[in-house]
Amino acid sequence: MEFKLTSTSSTVSKSLKDKIFKELCTRSKLAPDVETATMICSRRGDWALNQRSSHRQLKWSLGEVENGHSLLLWHIATDLLLYNINASENDAWCSEQEFCKEISEYLLYLLLTKPAVMAPIAVILKGDASASVLFDACRLAKQLKGFKEDKRWSLMSEVWMELLIYVAFHSEGTIHTENPSQGGELLTFVWLLMYHLGLGKQFQEEPLRTRYKLVVKK
Q: Could you give the CA distance from residue 145 to residue 149 in angstroms, rounded to a whole number?
């Protein structure tokens, strides 16, 4: 399985696949019915913020701005914080930071090169919007820097996971049909796994509103 970043192709790491699999399995167990599954897959970081009592402080960066704007400012804020880590010899690189980096760059790649895939959150910035995104990203980075480092990256990785699930859940099945023959898009595999775990959109259309789940074990 591969995904492209800018002009290069990157293989998805085992740690990234393991984390995505684990997170989706956890969400599947928390969704006994269609309504709950839909609610879980429609979050864009709100649950992660609420779990850590950070909703009041950071909700403006997710629920109070346009979806595309939100993704861009979180991407820039993530880059700013990662740059500070790379510039310091005393800070060790951790799996949460790596996850944030990979998903942040991947979703930005999709936003810029495959707008049809990112239709749920795609937005074209005009006029002063670019300056606004940069300003908001700096504000967000400053707020996140106020958290203890381990809690900061744990929170950020949860937000990025929710954004990935949100995009996969709201993407149309037709856009994934050509990906397997071309090596596979990470989002396509996430989309397929969500369907297998009972988190797909198709369950909303069942007349009796029943929900079936294919249990996947590693």
A: 8
DSSP element (H, E) containing 25: helix 14-29
Burial of 88-106, coded b for 16+ CB within 10 Å and e otherwise, reads: eeeeeeeebbbbbbbbbbb
Is the pTM higher than 0.70? The answer reads: yes
3-state secondary structure of 191: helix
Domain ranges of the chain: 2-205
Q: Phi and psi of 141, rounded to 5°?
A: -60, -40
Residue (of 136, 141, 155, 131) closest to 82 by Cα position: 141
Give the CA angle between residues 41, 197, 195 to the nearest 5°: 70
Tens-binned pLDDT, residue by residue, of the chain (218 aa): 444 444 344 577 888 989 999 999 999 998 888 888 888 888 888 888 888 778 888 988 887 677 788 899 999 999 999 987 765 545 555 889 999 999 999 999 988 888 777 776 666 575 556 668 889 999 999 999 999 888 899 999 999 999 999 999 888 777 777 656 555 688 888 988 998 888 876 544 444 344 445 455 55
Cα angle: 159, vertex 142, 44; to 5 degrees: 20
CA atoms of 5 and 123, how far apart (whole Å):
20
What contacts 24, CB < 8 A, 6 or more positions away? 165, 190, 193, 194, 197, 199
CB 3 within 8 A of CB 186: yes
| Residue entry with tokens 């029943």 | 210
**φ/ψ (deg, to 5) at 170:** -90, 0
